[in-house]
Structures
1.
Amino acid sequence: MNAYAIETKNLSIFYGQFEAVKDVNLQIETGKITAIIGPSGCGKSTLLRAFNRMNDFVPTSRVNGEILLHGQNLYSREIDPVEVRRRIGMVFQRPNPFPKSIYENISWGARINGFKGNMDELVEQSLRSAALWDEVKDKLKQSAYALSGGQQQRLCIARTIAIQPEIILMDEPASALDPIATLKIEELMQELKKNYTILIVTHNMQQAARVSDFTAMMMLSGEGERSGTVIEFDQTTKIFTNPRDSRTEGYVTGRFG
Amino acid sequence: MNNFSYPEKDALNRFIAARYRTAWLWQIVFLFALLFAVVSLSALILNVADGAFGYVAYEYKKDPAMISPRPLEELTVPELLAALKANLSAGAFAKLDNESPLAGRSRAELLGLVEERILLVKTLETYPLFRSLFQREQIAAEVKEKFPAARLEFRAWLNAAFITSPQSSRAEFAGVRTAILGSLWLVSIAILFALPVGVGAAIYLQEYSNRKSLLNRIIQTNINNLAGVPSIVYGMLGLAIFVRAWEVFTSGALFGVTDSNGRTILSAGLTMGILVLPLMIINAQEAIKAVPDSIRQAAFGVGATRWQTIWHHVLPGALPGILTGSILAVSRAIGETAPLIIVGASTFITFDPQSPFTKFTALPIQIYQWTSRAQGEFHAIAAAAILVLLIMLLSLNATAILLRNRFQKRM
């Protein structure tokens, strides 16, 4: 039907009466990394969380418009949010492994989703895909809390890979990490995009420029407005070298935002 | 230039010294607060211990020489048995033998029976621990003058016999066995009831309900207030509901028990359960709140349902806190007296509670009853019972703390 992994149509997200994100139309390409950038408080994370229905946990939140996965609206009545979160995985801003062993961190998600197969193999493969296997293969039974921050974040990525999602959402995955751990995560993303579509929210424009193929620039939709919207969406090179919108140019060149 | 300035040189030194003085003053105040607390608690313990040990002057109505020319303490089991057989009526002897075969009883127990039934021991005067330790001669002289025939003996009222004997109308032979068992039954029923209900309510309030809705705010406020309601009010509630309205259930009539009314262990245990329920809910809520939200997000993020998230991550994380809450609940339940009096605890029970549908007594009830007696020896056993209550409380808490630490270590 189309080549897009996921797309939004006139998507608006509300918290009660407050419209946090307004009228977003995005086409996310399969097998690419798409970055969402923009100043604080413009609704980047809100938009990202709409993709796997994490906003459902905010009691007053509601969505207008559509998010289409293979042509099917994720917010239609027939779709269960639990299924959405299996198909669209998420890595959070701060590493948040479960207070369990490294092994269980990966096997738990698989088990509750009805995984059938060799669990040891799944754990190994997921850890290898997250470039963590060599560092932890001798201590799988140890607590995940004993790992460094960067290792914990890669464990969280491994945990997400293990449930074999189609799309991985990353909410500023490196903002709590040092530059070396950040570099590792970025290298890992390049590996992962061979198999997954990745959406990443980041504050770090160099990071967006380095890792992403496409960039969505978000900003408050106007003077005195509180709603954020996507003001420009294009190939990353264009956004950073030849943006159409003067606000984008101001932001990426550091003159503003 | 502007007119902002900070102290410099000498003024700065003086200013810093003044700040240190203030800090030092507060430190002293806090130290005294701590000392006051330590002294108060020590005084409490010493006061109880003072009553539970000490000299006692007593006499036998009958001359011990009528049993044997040798001192009583040297008599062997067969000799004591023979003395009982010779001096008691055949009926009384058969009754004692029926309760528990006399030949199988310990020497201390037989000696107690001889003193109680044959020699008719009578306590004349009891002395507190500290006088007994430091004014030994004075006490001896006083006893010699007031009771020429009396024997003087140092006694620990808190002893093995005290713990293993049932209630008795004579302080010298009374024990707390029935009261300990009653208290254990009570606390068990209260926790069995309050723990699942309290944790369940806390889970619903924290994890499922909309915290901001008006109804939930009203419920929350009421739970918080209920935690502070005087316990006697819960006693009234227990009397109205468990003892009276649910008598068919609490008396065991529903289960074929015919010889009791609603004033049973079950009624009292449920009343205690209701009493500690707000405490349980609030503590479980705090424990659940303390589980970081990032863990829930992580679980939802890999496609867990709400229940899977709660069962696998929230509850294990909250368990240590829930156990701490249970410790507080047990401590509260074991020491409560007023509601037990209202729901009708018996003060004189000589048999062990066998089922939830029996009459019962509990440690605080025993203590309350004994302290209200005029005779000094009852005050002494009340002090001993308080020590038993404290020891029981400490060991229950220690168990819960060990359990909690075990769960905490699991990552």
Note: The two ends of chain A are 38 Å apart (CA to CA).
2.
Amino acid sequence: MPELVSPKPKPPPPASPLLPLRVEGLCYEQGRQRLLDGIDATVEHPGCTVILGPNGAGKTLLLRLLHGLLVPSAGRILWASGPQSEALRRRQAIVFQRPVLLRRSAAANIDYVLRARGFPRAKRPGRIADLLALAGLDDRAARPARVLSGGEQQRLALVRALALEPDVLFLDEPTASLDPASTLAIERLIRLAQGRGVKSFLVTHDIGQARRLADEVLFLHHGRLDEQAAAKPFFKAPGSSRARAYLDGRLVL
Amino acid sequence: MNDIAAAFALALALIRAADPDLVEIVALSLRVSLTAVALACLVGLPLGAALAVLRFRGRGALVLLVNVLMGLPPVVVGLLVYLFLSRSGPLGAFGLLYSPSAMILAQFVLVTPIVAAIARQVVADLHAEYDEQFRAWGIGPWRRVGTLLHEGRHSLLTAALAGFGRAIAEVGAVIIVGGNIDHATRVMTTAIALETSKGDLALALALGLLLLGLAFAVNTLAMVLRHAERGRAHA
């Protein structure tokens, strides 16, 4: 019975209320070009779904469509309660590759989001302090956000995204331009959020990061979903030849 | 050559002695132009930001209008304001013609398009950067206008300064609606025009030098402010 001897079984994350997510025949066209072509998928795993694939596969596009920042040319995106809507988007948050920080202090950046969503004024300072502590930015609260280091900025963007306790977190290559220490800090925050029941979708180019964080993998290639699989079997032996080539570090055309 | 040198010496003497006429003229200039610019910012900054963020019918035409108005010759603005304020004009009943208020109004009309046009550009650039994040947060258009005005505050200072530069330096509008009346509506530029034509180069030069100094002072102040704000934490 190999299951019993496996060293540290990961406790299953709490279920996310927005799941399952069903994607049906999702297409996205820009001009004449079809950038995403008929994606069908069902995501039920409450943990981290990593979207992998070579450059131009449509990973970032898929993430933006899921969050509702782009409107699909065809197909549907259905969360547990129905299609993506403004109300549903309020229960989700996104972190971009390059954080979009406001030109004000780190604390004020978080305060802005809380205020915009009508978070009770009296509770704001405490919440801001908690989040800054979570990011290890306690001593940076009053610093202008734009003068923080790259890693600090991304940490701030991440806890700012978590400020409103989203059910779903979208991460678009959040550590693409960060050093290993900053990457580690970001991954720690992602895991922490997951432990609190936040479902995450992560686009990354870093296969090591995908191995560390993924519970499930969506492998895209040329705008199509090439493979959807649980992380363990995927990294052990991917089903598609292209995914195998990608994991081996070969160039995938 | 000697005339010029003598005029320079006299001009410096006037400034050093803080000649009462000189002080009065400079004070009125500052009062008129600063008030006009403050009012122009009050209208022009939100207008420019709204033009950058909001999408509505006729927006393109309005942007074009603002850009055209930006190039209006001051004398034309002076003429239009004159027509509005003259006895038979729509605002004639207020009797504002040949008063500092009329000059403020004229400079306001002159400066608002400049402030609005620069604000539109500044805010449009910022908006391009923030748009996706705003959409992700579900921030509505009006809140965006307010947020972006705050985000662009350093760059928008240049809009105010450009407006002030134009206001303090123009002659055409204030001479038409103000009339260059001694001790009432005489400002630096109108005085320079008059004194030069009268041949009193000393006073003209003194005012010219002060105008130049003012330009330096204002721009230095702006630079200092910008540096200070950049270095300071603003919660």
Note: Chain A touches chain B at residues 67, 69, 86, 89-90, 93-94, 96, 100, 102-105, 107-108, 112-113, 116-117, 141-144 (CB under 8 Å).
